[in-house]
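Team,

Forwarding the record for the chain on the shared tracking sheet. I've put the sequence and predicted structure together so nobody has to dig through attachments.
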Amino acid sequence: MAARMFPVADRHQGKVYVITGGAEGIGRACAERFAQEGAHVMIADINPKGADVADSIGAAFQLTDMAEPEQVRALAAATVERFGRIDIWHNNAFTAVFKPIHEQTLDEFNAITGVGIRGYWMGAKVAVEQMRLQGSKGVIVNTASVQSFVGEKGFSAYQATKGAVLAMTRSLALDHAPDIRAVAIAPGLIETEAVKAIPQDVMDEVIAGIPAARAAQPEEVAAVAAFIASDEADYMSGTAIILDGAYLAIG
């Protein structure tokens, strides 16, 4: 499916936006969208391809393993050194292994939660510290999932992270209101590089269970992220925006 196009505003002109997991998929689309809207963008990823993405949109890049707290601190420091501040921090990086719990190892669990829970917590922590130091308003955006709400076979560790992200978002919103907002995005099936690699017969079966009858494009998630991080959404905090083609409406 071709990329979907959405109107671009200048809502983020001059703001500093950090996106983790920005080398591809949702993260890349978000980096591109915020750059189009005038933001100074810092892309963080363990994948060095993020540097190419940054070059293509005039952004900065920091090679970062979000499971390593000192690397997360270094990311925040590099952002402030480059741009002087942090206005929007988007926790988006993840790692996943999909198999039943009895087949999953503790090392795999630690790797998944190290990025998806500790990394998100640490990202929010360094961002909030900087926002408070600046004495300015700010926004924490967390990429959750429809799997924050429902169960799926073989997804126990991944779903543990996404459930935690949703709960963490609520707490963050209360900790620093009214100056710092926290909002989660809960996407359903998104046509990322990983999803494109799924065999067509499997994809057909998955899409048959989605009322919208298709996967979403990363650009659709980026459009939502750009809105919720903007001043237009200033009253939105402590909640999740679900983007799933009515999948959860089935019940």
